Amino acid sequence: MEKLKIAKTISTLTNPPIICIPLFLIICMVLSFENGNFNLGKFIVLEIISLVFTSVLPMAIIVFWAKKLNTDRDISNREDRYTPLIVGIVSYFIGFLISLILNLDNFLTVLLLCYSINTGVVLLITIKWKISVHTTALSGPVAALILLLGPFGAIFGVIYPILIWSRVTLNKHTLAQAICGGVQGFFLTVLEAYLFFIVFNLQTVPLTPLADCIWFILAIIATPVILGILSYANIFSNKLFYLLEVIFLVIFYLLSPVDVFAIFVIVSIASILISYYAGDDFIWYRVLKS
Q: What is the pTM of this model?
């Protein structure tokens, strides 16, 4: 019962419009530093735009729609998710247009466009499969923070395996749906952002090199994906798991920057600890205990 309460609390705090608030706050703060000085006026404008169009409006439609359908605020039924997702797409796109027209900040402008596109991808997937909006919503801003802050942004990826456990434990998603939501969100956000900056020749703050971004993403998703594959294959062998972990550990150590290696270690430890905490009720634990 205690674990369910904790899982529910985690799920509530990482609800898409809610998790956006602290992560976009950090993004807007970073973007507001110019030549070593903090531009308060710019910060206030960026924060208002991001808060209204990534949090307030999406949250309003979620609450309204859940009440209208007499369902939970996760809107668990896949078919009931179409309208909130469409409203989310429109909200993010309006935010993008306002940011573009007012020439506020190229990074925020591109990020809002990425949000709109990624939500469109989620909508298309949702027609056939209930991919996790929670893990997608987490991975988008974390990917943005990786672009801006490198390892200091990637550290927020430690939430990813914890959120996977939460959503699966609450029976809101299958393991695959929770894992894939994050994977597509991480990769789409980084690749789209770089594509838009290059194609439209947009100037922005110095970004983490694309190759390093990919390494950070791989470091975040590696252990959850390994545990997921072993779980679905019914291979409950901790020896195989730790062998694969050692192989990836060596790969990251030899081929990636040292801070990527550190992120892999941190997320791996978090994944293992949350599995042991979850116990028999969570399939990752069955892989680790065998």
A: 0.93
